[in-house]
């Protein structure tokens, strides 16, 4: 094998390594087809995984206390969507995490071209516990509402809950209906992306915008806003249509703990970029294993700190 290769053995690397090891000519397409065949043997086909999903969820709830799992079907028992939340992460959110939920969406790239709606939390060490996931055919207002209703079943009516996500109307309306007392915060990074898309890229606009987002004092905000509106009147008019409490730290109505973007959720998206190509059960198992590993690691680290303190 080659001395170095990525964590995922890609067709280009398979071709390179086999050619070097066995001195045979394996081109990219042959390596790709071989990998697809092996992955199907190891992970199962998408059809087989969908047929076993009920049994998998049954065992998941049986061996993980407080785990929540639902499957929604349409006519002829055809898969529509599923929702799951591992019990350990739900308990961690209720007892040890900031009451901030950051949501995002990702797109599957395997045989099932579906969508993942997911939410993450943030603990006191600024670490990211994956909270809940929903796998469905496509996103819409109804899918977000169903997702948030199941999330509500898991976490309940948390006091001073804050959600952070992009400016999609479907998410905003769903949050208002399901969590009427929660504060809906916008991701400043997505907001800046909308500004760049509408008014063009400008470094000075970017710098001033982030200063408006991150300042703590309202009098400082007003000074910056005067400069901003004087030099960027069109952008200022656009931002004036959005309540400041949704995107500026100085006007927050609830505890957002400095999480002004949805970067934490985006980090999870980058983490499972290769898992999105898997059939549905290996994909869910990826998140399940990830949650268990992280919870166990933090439990061990917490025990070590307790030992040091008692000594």
Task: Name the beta content range.
Answer: 5-15%
Name of the top-level CATH class of the largest domain: Alpha Beta
Uncertain runs are 1-6
Count the E strands.
7
Assign an overall shape.
Answer: globular
Structural class: alpha/beta
Strand order of the largest sheet: 1-2-5-4-3-6-7
Roughly what is the average pLDDT, rounded to an integer? 87
Radius of gyration in whole Å, from Cα? 23 Å
Helix count? 13
* CATH architecture descriptor of the largest domain: 2-Layer Sandwich
Tell me the count of domains: 3
Proportion of residues in helical segments: 40-55%
Report how far the terminal alpha carbons are from each other: 49 Å
Order of helices and strands: HHHHEEHEEEHEHEHHHHHH
Domain MULE transposase: 100-192
Protein name: MULE transposase domain-containing protein
Organism: Lactuca saligna (Willowleaf lettuce)
InterPro entries: MULE_transposase_dom
Question: What does this protein look like?
Answer:
- There is one protein chain.
- It is built from 13 helices and 7 strands.
- By secondary structure, it is an alpha/beta fold.
- The protein starts with 10 loop residues before the first helix and ends with a helix.
- It has a 7-stranded mixed sheet, sandwiched between helices.
- The chain has helices at residues 11-22, 28-43, 46-51, 53-63, 87-96, 141-155, 169-178, 188-199, 203-214, 218-231, 233-240, 263-271, 280-310; strands spanning 68-74, 78-85, 100-107, 115-120, 130-136, 162-165, 183-186.
- Strand 6 (162-165), helix 7 (169-178) and strand 7 form a beta-alpha-beta unit.
- The chain is globular and about 70 Å long.
- It has 3 domains: 11-43, no CATH class; 47-186 and 261-301, Nucleotidyltransferase, domain 5 (2-Layer Sandwich); 188-253, no CATH class.
């Amino acid at each position: 094998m080659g001395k170095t290769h990525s964590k995922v053995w890609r067709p280009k690397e398979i071709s390179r390594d086999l050619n070097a090891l066995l001195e045979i000519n394996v081109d990219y397409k042959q390596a790709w087809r071989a990998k697809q065949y092996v992955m199907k043997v190891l992970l199962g086909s998408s059809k087989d995984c969908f047929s076993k999903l009920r049994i998998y969820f049954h065992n998941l709830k049986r061996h993980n206390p407080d785990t929540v799992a639902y499957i929604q079907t349409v006519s002829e028992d055809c898969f529509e969507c599923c929702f799951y939340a591992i019990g350990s992460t739900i308990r961690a959110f209720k007892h040890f995490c900031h009451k901030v939920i950051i949501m995002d969406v990702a797109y599957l790239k395997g045989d099932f071209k579906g969508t993942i709606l997911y939410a993450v939390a943030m603990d006191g060490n600024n670490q990211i516990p994956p909270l809940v996931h929903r796998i469905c055919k496509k996103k819409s207002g109804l899918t977000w509402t169903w997702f948030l209703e199941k999330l509500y079943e898991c976490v309940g009516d948390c006091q001073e809950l804050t959600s952070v996500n992009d400016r999609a109307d479907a998410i905003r309306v769903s949050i208002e209906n399901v969590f009427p007392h929660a504060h809906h915060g916008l991701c400043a990074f997505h907001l800046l992306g909308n500004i760049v898309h509408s008014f063009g890229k400008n470094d000075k606009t970017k710098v001033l915008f982030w200063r408006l987002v991150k300042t703590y004092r309202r009098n400082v905000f007003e000074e910056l806003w005067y400069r901003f509106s004087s030099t960027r009147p069109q952008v200022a008019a656009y931002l004036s249509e959005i309540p400041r409490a949704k995107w500026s730290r100085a006007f927050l109505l609830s505890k957002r703990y400095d999480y002004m973007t949805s970067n934490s959720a985006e980090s999870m998206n980058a983490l499972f970029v290769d898992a999105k190509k898997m059939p549905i059960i290996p994909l869910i198992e990826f998140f399940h294993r990830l949650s268990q590993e992280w919870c166990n690691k933090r439990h061990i680290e917490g025990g070590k700190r307790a030992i040091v303190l008692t000594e």
